[in-house]
Amino acid sequence: MLLRSPQNALPRCCTRICSNLYSTIPDNSPSLDENEGWLNSLAGSSSIVPELPSTMSDSHKGKRFDYELISKVRDRFHIKAPLVNFTSVNYLKRFNNHIHHQTQNNFIDLRIIQCKSGRGGNGAISFHRDANRRVGPPNGGDGGQGGSVYVQAVEGMNSLAKLKAKYTAGEGSDGGSDQLDGASGKDLLIKVPIGTTVRWCLNPKEVRDIVGREMGKDLSKSLKEVLDTVQVPVQCDAQEQILLHREDYEPGKGWIFKDKTEEYHKQKQWFTEFNEKMMQYDKEVKREEFFQDHFPLFGIDLDNITEKPIRILKGGHGGLGNMHFLTSMIRNPRFAKQGRSGIEAHFLFELKVIADLGLVGLPNAGKSTILNCISNAKPEIGHWEFTTLVPTIGTVMRNAHTGDSFTVADIPGIVKDARLDRGMGLEFLKHIERSKGWIFVVSLENTDPVQDLLTLIGEVGGLEKVNQKKILVVGNKADTDPNTNSTQQKFLSLQEFCLQNEWDSIPISALKKHNIELLVQKMEQLA
Ligand SMILES: Nc1nc2c(ncn2[C@@H]2O[C@H](COP(=O)(O)OP(=O)(O)OP(=O)(O)O)[C@@H](O)[C@H]2O)c(=O)[nH]1
């Protein structure tokens, strides 16, 4: 409880801003005149409701997905978009296959997390008492604000493994007698690695029910088809922000009564007239919630350290205590306002590691060996395929004095038909999505390195996609077959293909550390 003793109480004339609409509520120790002034001011406050844009932004360029506008009801835009945008295919697959999320080095790059902001505390119904007066003026304090949920990207984290499955912020405490305001609920901060994106999503249970139903109707349908065809209705504001659902609130409702019932109060003209004015306050609270309870439809991208935590769910308002309701007509207000509910929502946290360059290759091409010999990273190396199961980032230090360095990400090998989910699929490509340059690593030990390179290009999205990046092609394992010049021939073919595409190429042996300095120089130019 926050005690406002007469010494530290706000001065009587002090008012606080309650909402965007600048409705002012007299603060603790309000006098009858102040209360009446405030209640009367509510009647005229509707005139200052700001104009809201009547159309949604029509620029979808660069957005993650398209949506369809269904209708507009007052300030709400009803849209629909395929289910795939509000869940994670990989998350669902992992769940279906009972693959445990824990992987190599405890690396987890995908989590769906349930978050809940705290409910606001209820206002108190209380009356001053002393030796001379059994029932004095009302002195019930306000409920505390519910706790909010925040996210922040911080340095030093490289996995979502430590995130909890559920975060619930604290509830605001109820107000007390003697004008005591309830304590605010504890806020929650979810710390994530830099490179994490956060998107609003549906409850995975709900998604699994939909998928189960749809597949039950048509057994030939694949998971992908269901996710692409089922449309999810969502409400947005004009700025493409999803309106989050807080328990609804009908103006004029949300009272707590003491001694006398709601029915009793409803029959009294003094109460209905008073409640008429309070409805405007309720509308302002709703309006404020409308402006605050939203989350970007396309999510947020925490690709840098977040200096100030970002609030994703706001706690509920505390309810007003009965000290605010003393007027010349109402001497004994035996009622107070309930606190507003918190908000519950699911968010999809996805880590896309950030590295200047990404290594792309078939399994066993020697990517991890390369990263091992050029950087501080120590990825696992093995002569079997898929030794690398999670992305590893290495920092290549170029100048210890100036601190010049660049980062390189090694991702699991990509196989033919990875797009159709063979091997490890393409799930890990997202980790090099934001890299400036891609290093294709092919093994000169293989029969046809040019064909290997073509396979890789096809799998990662074709030449057009590849040409959006700076490219370097590395022919690794140049040490193999030293007695014939076959590796040399293979490299020359590779080089010719690269020249046609205006890409640089280099033969190396990561195992024997041949040509590594030149490789690092070329990589540095790319980065
Ligand atoms: N002869 C030779 N062998 C190499 C060279 N580079 C790597 N290797 C070997 O090739 C095998 C695979 O190397 P990795 O670095 O694990 O290959 P990777 O591309 O990371 O493999 P995945 O984890 O399956 O993606 C290991 O046995 C390495 O010792 C090289 O330059 N020459």
Your description of this structure?
By secondary structure, the chain is an alpha/beta fold. It has two domains: 15-57 and 64-351, GTP1/OBG domain (Spo0b-associated Gtp-binding Protein, Chain: A, Distorted Sandwich), CATH 2.70.210; 357-526, Rossmann fold. The chain is built from eleven helices and 23 strands. The strands form seven sheets. Strands 19-20-18-21-22-23 form a six-stranded mixed beta sheet, with helices on both faces. Helix 10 links the parallel strand 22 (470-476) and strand 23 (504-507). Helix 1 packs across helix 6. It is elongated, with a radius of gyration of 31 Å. 40% of the residues are buried. Bound molecules: guanosine-5'-triphosphate. Guanosine-5'-triphosphate (GTP) binds at residues 361, 363-369, 381-383, 385-388, 412-413, 476-477, 479-480, 509-511.
Layout of helices and strands:
Blueprint: E1 15-17, E2 24-26, H1 32-44, E3 68-73, E4 76-82, H2 89-96, E5 110-116, E6 149-154, E7 166-168, E8 188-193, E9 196-201, H3 204-217, H4 223-229, E10 231-236, E11 241-243, E12 255-257, H5 262-267, H6 269-292, E13 294-296, E14 300-302, E15 310-313, E16 335-337, E17 344-351, E18 357-361, H7 367-374, E19 392-399, E20 404-410, E21 437-443, H8 449-460, H9 463-466, E22 470-476, H10 486-500, E23 504-507, H11 516-526
Parallel strand pairs: 5-7, 6-8, 18-20, 18-21, 21-22, 22-23
Antiparallel strand pairs: 1-2, 3-4, 4-10, 5-17, 6-15, 9-14, 9-17, 11-13, 12-16, 19-20
Helix pairs in contact: 1-6
This protein binds guanosine-5'-triphosphate.
